[in-house]
Amino acid sequence: MSEWRTIAVVGMGYVGLPLALHFARAGVGVVGLDVDAAKVEALNRGESYLRQFPASSIAEVVEAGRLEATRDFARIAGVDAVILCVPTPLDGHREPDLSYVLDTARSVAPYLGGPETGEPGQPRRGTLVVLESTTYPGTTEGELRTVLEEGSGLVAGEGFHLAYSPEREDPGRTTHSVGTIPKVVGGLTPGCRDRAEALYQRIVEQVVPVDSCRVAEATKLMENIFRSVNIALVNELKVVYDRMGIDVWEVIAAASTKPFGYLPFYPGPGLGGHCIPIDPFYLTWKAREYGQHTRFIELAGEINTAMPDYVIGKIVEALNEEGKAVRGSRIRLLGIAYKPNVDDDRESPSYVVWDKLAALGAEVEYYDPHIPVIRPSREHAHLAGQSSREPTPEDDLLVLLCHHDAFRTLDYATLGVKVVDTRNVREIPGGLRVRA
User: Fold this and answer.
1) pLDDT averaged over the chain?
2) Element (H, E) at 10
3) How many angstroms from the chain centroid is the CA of residue 383?
4) Each residue of 184-216: pLDDT tens digit?
5) What would the mean pLDDT of 158-164 be, rounded to a whole number?
6) Are β-strands 183-187 and 161-164 bridged in parallel, bridged antiparallel, or unpaired?
7) Centroid of chain to Cα 366
8) Is 275 annotated in the active site?
9) What average pLDDT score do residues 278-282 get?
10) Contacting residues for 388 by C-beta, under 8 A, at least 6 apart
11) Is pLDDT above 60 for 123?
12) Residues 6+ apart with CB under 8 A from 415
């Protein structure tokens, strides 16, 4: 197969949707698979459910017949490649949960076999399967391979190709896109790697082939562990410098003037997103199998997980200065998203702060112009349906948790409400600002 006529992308979320759009714009037919009927219907109407993707970008490829969404896995029959972009969360014991990946593989496997010619309605022999979900080294050639082989009756590397290529999406970032971020690719065999490399060359400027799926899986973990450890370091320094009366933000700005040997990281109320709070613990779990203990990773996790409690302490101090208790106080959280100017609230530390304040008896509400209504989720089902409301002078305290641009222009002075600022958003006159 010299041409990529049709591929399937499983999971139409923050990773799968931009990938599908790039392939469709490159002239490849894309079948977008998702179990969420609302997403499927929206895509087929040419509508967007993620703020960073305007409806016009979706309607363009849908109307051209290059993207069709469906819940029917039988549509995989006959495609040239299947890319898996499904969640890999941690379970209740903070251990890897591969259920989404393996359940998806069971749905995909029956459609991987069939004649080389790929007659209409028949699956195509030699289908390429690529996993993009973050996981521990060995997943692709181990658990995923086993499920695909058992379900298809084929041997990976012979009857179908198998590869791993970690996603490198960063929602909201405008300086890079799918096409400009180098794509790391590892295959079960050299032939599998070559097939995956040829696929991604259709949409990215640079493909970086590596020796195995395990190397590619480890690459993704290293990238996010690097960030997790350095964020933990600066979070710890923030707490220390606060006790010393030193502004950590001024320290970071001064250190950033060094043209070598230093890379700035910034503190916050905790980690958010579907990568940094989760991915390092995939390696921690796997390392135990080899009798290794990842002390840096575990310590970083402890520090970052403790940051919401530091914020709660600052909130208590701020209210005490006003002669108020947490119980019964009306506290408005500014920013539910985990990062600025996006509607992505996955693993947001704002929810942790919210739950802790509610447990202390506070009346908690929120304002986030990017998230007008809290969507249902497994972790915070009790908050689903709550609506964003702008702050008012009747609020007892504002807690700035996400540095959206909109929060830089709010008229805090007119509101006259004290602000606990965890993101160094801006100076506020009148002694209303509390750094946290």
Assistant:
1) 93
2) strand 6-10
3) 20
4) 999 999 999 999 999 999 999 999 999 999 999
5) 96
6) antiparallel
7) 22
8) yes
9) 88
10) 336, 366, 367, 368, 369, 371, 372, 373
11) no
12) 391, 392, 393, 395, 398
Give the residue carrying structure tokens 């894309």: 30
Here the tokens at position 180 are 């400009």
Residue 207 phi, psi dihedral angles, 5° rounding = -105, 135
Angle ∠(202,208,213) on CA atoms, nearest 5: 105
Q: Is the dihedral of CA 416, 420, 424, 430 positive or negative?
A: positive
Query: Can you list the domains of the chain with their CATH numbers?
Result: 6-210 (3.40.50.720), 212-436 (3.40.50.720)
Structure tokens at 8: 């399937």
Q: Which residue in the list 85, 192, 213, 275 is annotated as catalytic?
A: 275
CA distance 347 to 308: 13
Q: Write down the residue that tokens 């490198």 correspond to.
A: 168
Per-residue model confidence as pLDDT tens digits over 21-59:
999 999 999 999 999 999 999 999 999 998 888 999 999
Which amino acid appears at position 416 of this protein?
A: G
Which residues make Cβ contacts (< 8 Å) with residue 29, sequence separation at least 6? 5, 6, 7, 65, 66, 67
Place of tokens 């006959």: 78
Q: Give the residue among 52, 55, 65, 54 at the shortest CA–CA distance from 25.
A: 65
- Among 355, 308, 354, which Cα is nearest to 332's? 354
- Could you give phi then psi for residue 330, rounded to 5 degrees? -95, 110
Span 57-114, pLDDT tens digits: 999 999 999 999 999 999 999 899 999 999 999 887 788 999 999 999 999 999 996 4
> 420 exposed, middle or buried (CB, 10 Å; 0-12, 13-18, 19+)?
buried
Tokens of 303: 């520090």
What Cα–Cα distance (Å) separates residue 55 from each residue in 7, 19, 63, 215?
Answer: 22, 16, 12, 37
Please give the sequence-ordered ranges of beta strands (E in DSSP) within 124-203, or none if there are none.
128-131, 161-164, 183-187
Residue 416 is encoded by which pair of tokens? 């006259």
User: Looking at residues 372-389, what average pLDDT do you find?
Assistant: 92
